[in-house]
Amino acid sequence: MANPIFSFKRGVFLADFHVHSHFSRATSPDMHPDTINRFAKQKGLSVVGTGDFTHPGYLQELKKELEPDGNTGLYVCKDDPEGTKFILTSEVSNIFTQGGKNRRIHTVFFSPDLRVVEEIQNRVGSIGNISSDGRPILGFPVKDLVRIIMEVSSDCFVVPAHIWTPWFSLFGAKSGFDTLEECFEEQSNHIYALETGLSSDPQMNWRLSALDKYTLLSNSDAHSPSKLAREANVFSSELTYEAITTAIKHTDSGFEGTIEFFPEEGKYHYDGHRACNICMKPQETIAHRGKCPVCGQDLTVGVLHRIEELADRKEGFIPETAKPSVHLVPLEEIIAEAFGVRTITGRVKKEYQRLIQLGESEMNILLWKTEKELQYFVPDRIMEGILRMRRGDLKINPGYDGLYGKINIFSKKEREELQSSRAKACSREKALQMDLF
Predict the structure, then answer these.
(1) Which residues partner with 255 through β-bridges?
(2) Is residue 217 a contact partner of residue 260, using CB atoms and an 8 Å limit?
(3) pTM for this structure?
């Protein structure tokens, strides 16, 4: 798997807009502004979304912990004014019926300041429950939500979220639409960008000519601090709200490209039925008429399949408007692979912190440090993992039906050899300890 355009020039900054607070369901209790700031710095983010600004309780927290970063339209932690800058963002879920079909659409909204956030809460809170979840569920068409928010302030910004996810997205196989205009109708002119989601990347989206006019964004959708920056956006604009949103609208104004998950690692890349351990390529799903061969239930149609259905271009097409992208494996996952373990153990976390202290940030290590620079502080096996990732020299078992894919940087034989050498080292250590007594 090639990763041909590997690195962006130094001097750009990274932004991750779509995150969640501890007020969202299935989210870490650590997702407070101070913790988000600390982890964002470790990752190498210059800008991070607040997430969940629609929640009244979280708005009070934002007011308490953040302060304006001058007149930039961004915010910083009061206790760390030189830290990562926050941009006001929130994801909303609209569930409604349109065209005789049940629709579930997630959208990320940007706000230029807290005053606008308060007015959005007043308007939306009068017609829906915004207090039960950090990502509120509203029972009316998403186009009406866009209209309300843009009436509050024309400086707000709208981005359909993870547009291919089967259950909750613009083009999702289960509850989405076939075109953006069908969904947003007269509000379509407010949409300048689309979030590709973890299970797709820009290359996959380039197969639809209808998407050429939209900027393709990538964000982590982080529900815990360690997941920040698993996807991100690259800018060379000024660090202001206006400059960032202008760069997204007009990409020659400072939008440089994206940092990507390998899409095969996403939870909905392939089709399948997790309960029966069935994972299929689109062609196999068609051959089985969309049914699980074990139990006969409907398969969950994944992102690759859905793109195949709507695509009007062949795989590999590159539009003139295309921006570069880089596919990365999170550093903790590389360390775990190098250590021969499948989970993020205490030993993995300790090594991660050591590397971050020496390498300045995770993205600096993964993107910009040369092989010669890495040799000074990165153990050989971890460095080999980083270099293989940069080459795209990986094996990935694709994700399906809500199950993340699995990346193997090292072969089965290499992993077995590592486990064997570790076992021998442990045996020698125990023998030495016994000799001491």
Answers:
(1) 235
(2) no
(3) 0.93
